[in-house]
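Extended Data, panel c. Modelled sequence:
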Amino acid sequence: TARPSARFTRHTPTKPAKMVLSALVSMVAPAARLAPARVAPQRVAQALRAPAFRPRVAFHAARAVSAKYASEKKGDYPSMDFRIFFSEDGKPVSPWHNVPLHNADGTVNFICEIPKETKAKMEVATDEELTPIKQDTKKGKLRDYPYNINWNYGMLPQTWEDPGHEHPEMKVMGDNDPVDVVEIGSAALEMGSVTPVKPVGVYAMIDDGELDWKVIAISAADPKAKDVNDVEDVEKHFPGELEKIRVWFRDYKTPDGKPQNKFGLDDKCMNKEYTMGVIEETSKFYQDLVSGKTENKKGLSLK
């Protein structure tokens, strides 16, 4: 059988093909400051590839941070003895003290304590050495929420809500814990995972008279992350989700006969600028705690 010739016959482009090529060239030409007829084919290819490339970079960055930390489960789950310990390059570390708050790309790190659609009330044990994750207890029994939480829930490392600081507007003190995060992405994250997230809003929940910030965030690797940059974007891409979050945290104690939790700041989910101010303030409170500038009066483990 004869081989096909290596030479190609030149064909005149059809009218639809000319229209497509003209549109692509006109998009690239202004940026290159060239006349459309002189735009190199490589520039057209680059323009076509660029939008698909950005999410891939964000995904790899998120995966790199997650892979840096390992977690090890010890004890039976569920039980009083169950713990999740963290390590970095084989060395034991604290998720509260040794995982950085900020990443170079502007994201912050989120420690997942409770994966979405589960109800065991897991938390970083701030009073235990290396602050592992454990299940909360009440009256000698393991504590569960009355129903599943619909989002990934956890905390921001190297933050602290100072119980000695009164909020100037709401007149309430911090709850002595790291800042809580509600992660609204589509994937259920693993308990004990470290995930870069984009903070986009915050609720000022008041729980038993204490200020308990709830930062709303989305995983940097989530397909919708590129479109969610502030609180109004949450309503656009996750309609009704902010109100669901507020109602869930308002009501979760009522099945046990307790009153509803309250919210400050007129029940509003504040915008990203306000949220980042909360994160920076509570980061400073944390730094003052570990440096000794603020006295550790509550028996917290600082290592």
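The longest helix spans residues 41-68. This feature is highlighted in the accompanying rendering.
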